[in-house]
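Why run this: before we spend reagent on co-expression, it is cheaper to look at a predicted model of the complex and decide which construct boundaries make sense. The entries below are exactly what would go into the expression plan.
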Amino acid sequence: MPHSIVFAGVREGLWQVTSMTTLIGADLPIVEAIAMHGGDWEGDIGSSWELRGVPSNMRYSTKSELSALRAIQPDLGRSECRRAALIPIKKSAAWWQLAQDERRAIFEEDSRHTAIGMSYLPGVARRLLHSRDLGEPFDFLTWFEFAVEHEARFQELLDRLRASVEWRYVEREIDIRLTV
Amino acid sequence: MPHSIVFAGVREGLWQVTSMTTLIGADLPIVEAIAMHGGDWEGDIGSSWELRGVPSNMRYSTKSELSALRAIQPDLGRSECRRAALIPIKKSAAWWQLAQDERRAIFEEDSRHTAIGMSYLPGVARRLLHSRDLGEPFDFLTWFEFAVEHEARFQELLDRLRASVEWRYVEREIDIRLTV
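The model came back. Tokens follow.
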């Protein structure tokens, strides 16, 4: 699967782990660093765990939301962004059995997911990878990059999302903070 | 990926190929039969090609559509269903770059995809497998089972969908008909 991306929990890597916090569900083994690989990578005897995801199409955004996002969304890898977070998330079976309009209503009309995320752009760069169809242990791998001075704002973003109705459907979430 | 399903083009199998018609895009090599395997199957020296997909959540159905579908949707494997079709489909990059509300509008409000499919239930049993996030050559693997006497109705279902606005975004489609 060369179009996918693998995050490997390792002992040495560019992004060093500063904390790993399990918010809900099962832990992941503690690691010192995260290495990123293209999907054709065949694994490494030195990795403690590996999480795979793929960029995919947007699942909830309307045309106007997508236009606004595309206009403001920064690239990854900005030189000032020396902090990152990898937050793998799994939602419940109840979430996935909902119809599209029910999930959309919870995601945006109730929880303001896109609107909240937008208000932290371009300071906090975000990327979403999809894992559920790959049979992975998490449904999503979310990746964030930001400058040191945006760390408090980033925490505020997470606090707001975690207080939302949408998050009642999250059954596993691990917050891995990183520094380069 | 044990939750996925693999369709293998083979020389001998339960479902024998009666025709393979490429509607648009590149062909698949002609095979005599289709074998189905669970996703942990590791391949077979005797297969000409393999296509993998996963059952996933519904991407467009509203709550009322989903309720109606679940109420009427028949099981696969009914004894009278001695005809089947495997139709792998790939949509264009232009489709996938559309926002969710744009895709929904084309899928249902313009093309009546669910409504058309519903009107052939329970005669034509359908299953949709998702392949795009797996890096597969097709985005979807669609599977249909029906009794011999429903074959003309099945063809009518396909003709109606292929005449829809949604189908302008289909860039590869192969219609494989099968008999047991």
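Helices of chain B lie at 63-72, 93-97, 100-110, 113-118, 151-162. The mean pLDDT of chain B is 94. Bring this page to Monday's planning discussion.
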